[in-house]
Amino acid sequence: MKTSILCNLLLLLSMYSLRAQTKIWGAGTNNGAAEGEFQTPFITTGTNNNYAPNAWTALSIYDTDSISPGNAYWTRNTLGYSQGAYAAHPWQTPAPLPSPSQTNGVAIFDSDLLDNNAVTGALGTGTSPSRHKGALISPRIDLSAYQDSSLMVQFFSSYRSYDIDELSIAMSTDDGTTWTPSINYLTLQAPFNPGWIRTYFPSLTNGSNNLTNCRLKFTFEGEYYFAMIDDVSIEVAADYDFAIARPNPSSPQLEEQGDYIKIGNNQYFAPINLSVDDIQQWYFGLRVVNHGSKDLLPSDSAMICLRIDFYNNHTNVANVYNDTILVTDTLLAHAQNSIFGTKNLKNINFFMLYGQGTYRITYTLQHRQVDAYNDNDSARYYLNNAAHLYQHTYINYLSKARLSNSTAKVLTTSAIFPARKDLTSYEYGSMYYFPRGNTNQIRIDSIDFGYFVPWDYTGDSIMNLTAEIYQFRDTVYNNGILDHLNELQHVGTGMIRLTGIGTIVPPGSYGFGRVISFVNPISGITMNNLTNNGYYLVTIKQEPVSSTTLDSTQHLWFGVDAYSNFAQNMALTNVSNVIPHSFVTIAIDSNQNKVINTQEHGSHTVPSIGLHLGGRSGYCSTIETTAYPSTLLNISPNPAQEFINVRANFKNQTSIQYLLTDFSGRILQTKTQNTASAPQEFNIKELPAGIYWIYAKNKSEKTTASFIKAK
């Protein structure tokens, strides 16, 4: 209670979020408002330093990697979204940038449109074939009154990246002749996450005798898909801006690659595996910075606050746990340093008390000074003790990936395939910790996984994949890390035969598999129960079928959930505290060299793998064994462009509800038939091309199937 009161008191002291700073130029000012809101046309040029004095200048630097200056221009756009053939998010229709002045115009580098001229399949035929680079230079800005001031540039931003090398901002005090080092704001914002970005220039105006011809520069370099900005302003930097540090995927430090610690190291955890006496995995914390112009001192009582709330089917809410981490070191101004704050939970008794359901994890930052912005000092995610989805209940389900709201199966949002061309075997998976393996006689009843059939698939219609289970023992280097093959003992294997690849699961679509039987690979008898305090690596393995090596067009791609970032969890690993790896790959090349990698796919994805556990004090729900959509649901035509007809072949043909969802589970259309005398029609004309799901249910039956919206 004291912890909660203290956090609330500090919140009151810093509640004046977005407190008005001294605005100098651009949106929200009397000086340059039209330019900051992109109300006026741009001037185009291919020549450096040929910048308009009173308007934005779009500078083309190169296109097709070699033609200079080319036609790689930023443009003024009044629609607020990209017009390229592929720019829409796979599960979203184009929506305008939600910036305050979007209707006045936004600035966009529409790499997609520039490359293909909005024609699907016409890659490289647009006005500026990618790769390309363009800059957008502001009109002249007079900063004479702000010599020796710490400045901040704020702007509203959104982008989608395929292969963007640079998305940056810089400033000049000599009319664009020289520029400050660029600030790459890819590290300040996640893709498809529109919002405010603030960049700081603490010493730009120091010692300068002439500040009448200052400029801003935004730069895009790379290919696909787009970057948009709006409502640009220059302000005097706030005294204090205590913030959660954005992940930096390129950092060599694990604590800098993540966003915040995922409590328990899994998205779904199994009640059968909980031990109140073992809190080894139960950490919380994150990395913090101070973007303000003044140092945040220990006497300012900066702290990380944790709140955990319990949701019973998202209806009954209870606050079940509170804690804090006090920041005892100085956070220097202008984000010159960062601090990684971590702490064990005091206990996990609340899991036993409240039981199965969803736990909302909320991080907030507080201190005794007045904080300028509160949109960067809180984070929230959900931790699940059992999964309740569309009448499915997975009581002892363990996974780092999410579950699909539409199918109640492990979620696959993207797919990966090894870059090497000489592999004869490749497996990927995650590691898990079992403190009560033997005590509760825990066994792995089944393993779920997601996969992707590539668009240009030419392989067999039948594939045999295996699930492999290894016990990890840190015996070689004794460093808490899986870094040697001798640290893995092969304890279980199971096979699944996937059929209908390329037909039932068509090219360009995701599939689902489940392995339901495991044997010891040496003895051939049923795999043993797990051990107490055991670490187990669970992988899905694929080997060549008709070719000699794995080929990206003849084999399945491995499904991943590009959501959870467990990098900061991994930063806690040491000899006495092993944190299970979130992503592990094992590859064998044509020379039979075998390599383990725990960093191959970065820190922002996890394998689409889920475990159903059984044992003494818990049970699994009844689970189906088919790997594919049920034949109870007919969808035709499939693929389709304008309309589909759907019919559920249920025994009870009354009160059937149909839901049309995108692959993330977002419900797009619903239909209800009191009596299913004819197929139910859906109009899909306005849907973007891609994969969608139909879910059908009545009081006693349910089924699901996918279809393709053709281009």
Mean pLDDT: 87
End-to-end Cα distance? 57 Å
Q: Could you give the count of β-strands?
A: 40
Beta-strand content = 35-45%
Total of domains: 4
> Main beta sheet: strand number and arrangement?
10 strands, mixed
Low-confidence region ranges: 9-20, 617-631
Helix- and strand-based class?
mainly beta
Please bin the fraction of helical residues. under 10%
Mass-distribution shape: globular
Rg calculated over all Cα atoms? 27 Å
Helical run tally: 6
Descriptive report:
It is a single chain. By secondary structure, the chain is mainly beta. The chain has four domains: 23-236, Jelly Rolls; 241-385, Immunoglobulins (Immunoglobulin-like); 396-614, no CATH class; 633-709, Macroglobulin (MG2) domain (Immunoglobulin-like, Sandwich). It has six helices and 40 strands. Strands 1, 2, 3, 4, 5, 6, 7, 8, 9 and 10 form a ten-stranded mixed beta sheet that branches. Strand 19 (387-389) and strand 20 (392-394) form a beta hairpin. It is globular and about 80 Å long. Residues 9-20 and 617-631 have low confidence and may be disordered.
What key attributes describe this structure?
Immunoglobulin-like, 7-stranded antiparallel sheet, single chain, mainly beta, 711 residues, Jelly Rolls, 10-stranded mixed sheet, 40% strand
Describe, in short, the structure shown.
This protein is mainly β and 711 residues long. Strands 1, 2, 3, 4, 5, 6, 7, 8, 9 and 10 form a ten-stranded mixed beta sheet that branches. Strands 21, 22, 24, 27, 29, 32 and 33 form a seven-stranded antiparallel beta sheet that branches.
